[in-house]
Amino acid sequence: MIETIYVEDAIQNHPKTKFILNKFKKSRIISINKYGEIFNKRNQNFRIQKANPCLILAHKKDNFVLPAPEGFGIGSSKNFYFSHMYNCIYDCRYCFLQGMYSSANYVIFVNFEDFDISIEKIIENNINSKLTFFSGYDCDSLALENITGFAKHILLLFRKYPQIEIEFRTKSIQKEPFLSVKPMPNVILAYSLMPELMSNSLDNKAPSISKRIRVISELALKGWKIGLRFDPLIHGENWKELYQELLENIYNNIFLDNLHSVSFGSLRFPKRMFKDIFKLYPHEPLFASSLSLNNKMISYDIEIEEEMTSFCKNLSLKYINEDQIFKCSI
Amino acid sequence: MNNLKKTKNSIRWVIALKEEAQVILDYYKLKPINEKTIYPIYKNEEETHWLIICGIGQNNAAASTAYLYAYSNASNYTSWINIGIAGSCKGNYGDLYLVDKISTYQRKKSTYPSTLPKTTLPKMHLFTSDIPISDYSTYELIDMEGSAFFDIASKLTSKEFICLMKVISDGPENDIKEITRLKISNLIKENLLKIIDVISYYERLSEEELQIIDKPKLFHEIKSKWHFSATQSYRLETLLRRIEIFCNKKDIEQIIKNCETSNSVIKVLNTKIKNNLVNWSKF
């Protein structure tokens, strides 16, 4: 339940604003000038806000689509990302969004039409390149789909460009935008996963791993291409058994012909970000393990990272081809 | 200013008039402090609640908030409360409202206080004016201190720890000239249960925050046995927080008992964490 919704004056009459507000008839609506008056101001407590976040409806002015960071891709020569939303309804303890913004409120940019224009412009300017767009870098791309309808909107655009890939990265079990339309070969539904035992402790407020696997299995069977994102890989007691069980469970339960790609990523925090997150949650078990400073990043020791990646990769190779496996290294 | 003992919850009240404060002073058993101060200050025996009578107007509200912060040694987990009467064109006489937006004549931009979650109390937009306003038609709530209080308090703590509550005392049908000291006192009194309920949330919030930011259990004990530089102290604090997740006090004491220097304390704690394999079934 969202108790308070801040709405920028400029978009009060935007159809998407009305569409969203219509879903929150009991919420208190407060008009604001710019979303920056509320979001990411100093002197906010992220942890307390996270317990009861507000929603901010805003107009995005620029930077609709940005080049993806190095190491984020899944095989294309050029990668871009866009975020119709800042922040996430989930509360995953390893997530960089905790250290990214001082505010835990959700910002939704309602001017989807401007995302369309920017995306099409990039497609036109890169006519000879293989492009992948990523939705859900500053948020979970599907978690608030029933409120925003963004995925449904953007699918229509990408239907016009079957040669351009779009990846929705998510932990959500929202199926509707995909079950109601014909599968599109250029769309990758990418799910973040980790062993259930670890997820129970770390993926707060997110759907359980077993529920995610059920949805993945259903969508793959319907013909949607699936991405599996084991990012970050989490270390701990019996990690090999836990990851083996998870990987085998997934590979044995999904239609592998529709598995697009698998990527493995290490647990990494920029030093400053780690400091902020640790300050917010000093009693988290995630921080009670072998984390140290390597190349300006707080991470597991390189040997641990390599052992985990290679273990998971070797196990995956029993089921899929090497060219389907990627390393996420941002 | 004072060498205060560390207390559990921490509440600071900034209230314009003694008549508005009287019910709070009585309920929380706040007594005047035994020193001459610029503004009258009250506190309870446990020194968890402090209250300052700021007088009317934004300058007084700003100055007294800063004054109370310094005088009472408030911390960043202290909750700041402003309560008082307000004019309104919209609400009912005598009703209590939480404030979630504040505007003034002087400033183009509004400010947006947080309010406690899951409350049934109604919320309103507050306009803080430097002069009494008799035309109520434009504003939901009108007072003379709220904006300045919020501006200063939000420099002292995060906005989740700040609360403004207003009781409607005047409006188009209740002439401001008819307000008496007794009426003011009664207006607050009639809302005391609601106020107590709100305050219990902020007491809990400050207690929980203290639990999180407080130094680890063994920090001071270890620091008294070995000499730690400022950098080492920070390192020690971080390591203790991490190790406390999987080691109890006894185990930690055992690990460090043979250390001869602060460096070796840090080293053994670091090694212990480095070798820890998190048992995820426990969390």
What does it look like?
The complex is a heterodimer of chains A (330) and B (283). Chain A has helices at 15-21, 46-51, 97-100, 112-125, 145-148, 150-159, 176-179, 196-202, 209-222, 239-253, 271-280, 302-316; strands spanning 4-8, 28-32, 55-58, 66-67, 78-82, 85-86, 91-92, 106-109, 131-135, 165-170, 187-192, 203-204, 225-233, 259-266, 268-270, 291-294, 297-300, 325-328. Chain A is of the alpha/beta class and 330 residues long. An 8-stranded mixed β-sheet of chain A has the order 4-5-9-10-11-13-14-18, covered by helices on one side. Chain A has a 5-stranded mixed β-sheet with strand order 2-1-3-8-6, with no helix packed on it. Chain A has a 3-stranded antiparallel β-sheet with strand order 15-17-16. In chain A, helix 10 (239-253) runs parallel beside helix 12 (302-316). The longest helix of chain A is centred in the last third of the chain and has 15 residues, at 239-253. Chain A starts with a strand and ends with a strand. Chain B folds into 2 domains: 11-213, Rossmann fold (3-Layer(aba) Sandwich), CATH 3.40.50.1580; 219-282, no CATH class. The radius of gyration of chain B is 24 Å and the shape is elongated. Chain B starts with 10 loop residues before the first strand and ends in a 9-residue tail after the last helix. The A-B interface holds A 3-4, 6, 28, 30, 32-33, 37-38, 41, 43-45, 47-49, 51-52, 195, 197-198, 200-201, 234-237, 239, 242, 278, 282-290, 292 and B 100-101, 109-112, 114-115, 117-118, 123, 125, 154-155, 157-161, 205, 209, 212, 238, 241-246, 273-283.
